[in-house]
Design brief:
Layout: E1 6-11, E2 14-19, E3 27-29, H1 32-46, E4 49-53, E5 59-64
Parallel strand pairs: 1-4
Antiparallel strand pairs: 1-2, 2-3, 4-5
Length: 76
Amino acid sequence: MSAGDVETYYEGGRWKNRRQGRTRAFGTGENKAAVQAQGRAAAMRDGVEHIIKRRDGTISARHTYPRRRDPRATKG
């Protein structure tokens, strides 16, 4: 993860989005899907990676925007 990547994570009973390297969330909510969509839109707009975490803090998915920046050549 590099500074500026968007992270969707669970903390304090709420789902949140924040940029890597920062401590303050830029979006929060009770619904993971809604907060994740907000994080995806921010990552797409800024052309960075979106890291989605589970409640326990482990990474469930990573998406690189735009796709041509993805270091892995596999689809998915």
